[in-house]
Write a structure and sequence with these properties.
414 residues; alpha/beta; seven-stranded parallel beta sheet; six-stranded parallel beta sheet; 19 helices; 15% strand; globular; binds adenosine-5'-diphosphate; binds magnesium ion; metal ion binding
């Protein structure tokens, strides 16, 4: 009975130190406190973690958080503990399993983070029956759907666990789900259709620009001259990351460091830490970079080639301007990017191919449109935006569209 609980806003202020809820956070928290299963689709940076961390503090029992990456879990763990929330992880990287399991059994844990492959094992189910569970939070829930852009079969194995606790609410969270993927998440995780809450996706302070690539180093160097603040450049391969970091540093004289999964872990961590602390550094990275990084003042995100999908584009560009100040997202693309992506399609199984093809077509439509970029993005996420945003390349400098009928008339009358 939630009437016995204190006002969530008191907990928000006293435990988390925020004056107020943002956007749909309150709606999501209220549902969870009422024991109602929910799918919250909220953009990156909207504050999804709070929607389970706060109920976890308020409710009796532990909130089990399913999260796909150990690095993400440890980031979350650090920030939860910084707020005085009692949190732990159960991963292969942890040495304190016994303490964590004892704390769960004693009911002194608010949050317990686990990976889906562990959560779906029968031993984990047995373990959970030893103390009260308050909530299941399923982060990056699009991973449960083959329609999503990052399908992980281990997420499918969660259902028996969830169904073993029919009285425990489920909160699925994602930043990146189109209409089809949302329906799939609801079905796969057993969440009722009226449990869907979608937050606004518009990021009005981000200016979107999409250009043909001719000389990417020169093009990005020019962008860096306009934007002296911190920036992220996404490049498609490790080799291009390294090459570009060196060339951009030489071309601009600015501090530029590389980041990709092939670097020694210490160097990767050091480069990331330097970037987070810096007010003017540029990091050139593969898409491995960015998840779980909380840097509010990124002034630009550049893509030196096409991203994987509109969802990926939105998520990657969404790392710009979280502080609300004017920021830029600039993509430099070439026809060969699409040719390579389509070639890869041919090497996939039938089931995945169809989804990938649709994603690629949607991305091509965004890249090639003479119309408002933001309108296309927002429509992709199920919103009904105005025709013109006034803050993308096509709105600011409308491209000349050749009218075929007009052209034919002129040719005939000449
Ligand atoms: P997401 O997972 O949706 O990308 P996070 O949960 O990582 O977002 O939160 C993004 C940032 O917003 C974090 O720095 C978090 O502390 C902050 N934040 C969350 N809720 C609020 C709030 N109500 N008021 C102010 N800042 C908030
Ligand atoms: Mg998150």
């Amino acid at each position: 009975d939630t009437t016995l609980l204190p006002d969530p806003r008191d907990t928000l202020q006293h435990v988390f130190g925020f004056p107020d809820f943002r956007g749909v956070q309150r709606q999501v928290v209220d549902r969870v406190l009422n024991g109602q299963s929910t799918l919250a689709v909220m953009p990156t940076g909207a504050g999804k973690s709070l929607t389970y961390q706060l109920p976890a503090v308020m409710l009796e029992g532990t909130c089990i958080v399913i999260s796909p990456l150990i690095a993400l879990m440890h980031d979350q763990l650090r920030s939860a503990r910084a707020n005085g929330v009692r949190a732990a992880t159960l991963t292969s990287a942890d040495a304190d399993w016994r303490e964590t399991m004892d704390a769960f059994r004693a009911g002194t844990l608010d949050l317990l983070y686990v990976a889906p492959e562990r959560a779906s094992q029968p031993q984990f189910l047995d373990f959970l029956t030893s103390a009260p569970v308050a909530l299941f939070a399923i982060d990056e829930a699009h991973c449960v759907s083959e329609w999503g852009h990052d399908f992980r079969p281990d997420y499918r194995g969660l259902r028996p666990l969830l169904d073993s606790f029919p009285e425990v609410p489920r909160l699925a969270l994602t930043a990146t789900a189109d209409h089809h993927t949302r329906g799939d998440i609801l079905t796969q995780l057993g969440i009722p259709e009226d449990g869907l809450i979608v937050a606004g996706f518009d990021r009005p302070n981000i200016r979107y620009t999409i250009r043909h690539r001719d000389n990417p180093v020169r093009q990005i160097a020019r962008l860096m001259e306009d934007e002296p603040g911190p920036g992220i450049v996404y490049a498609p391969t490790r080799r291009k990351v390294e090459d570009m970091a060196v060339k951009l540093a030489a071309a601009t004289g600015r501090d530029v460091l590389p980041y990709h999964a092939g670097l020694p872990p210490e160097e990767r961590a050091a480069n990331q830490a330097a970037f987070v602390a810096s007010e003017d550094m540029v990091i050139v990275a593969t898409v491995a970079f960015g998840m779980g990084i909380d840097k509010p003042d990124v002034r630009f995100v550049a893509h030196a080639g096409i991203p994987k999908s509109i969802e990926a584009y939105y998520q990657e560009t969404g790392r710009a301007g979280r502080d609300g100040d004017p920021s830029q997202a600039v993509m430099f693309w070439g026809a060969e990017d699409f040719a390579i992506a389509r070639q890869r399609l041919g090497e996939m199984g039938d089931a995945r191919q169809e989804g990938e093809r649709k994603r690629l077509d949607a991305l091509a439509a965004l890249v090639e449109t003479p119309a408002c970029r933001r309108a296309i993005l927002l429509r992709h996420f199920g919103e009904d935006p105005p025709e013109q945003c006034g803050n993308c390349d096509n709105c600011l400098a409308p491209p000349e569209v050749i009218d075929a009928t007009e052209l034919a008339r002129k040719l005939l009358s000449a």
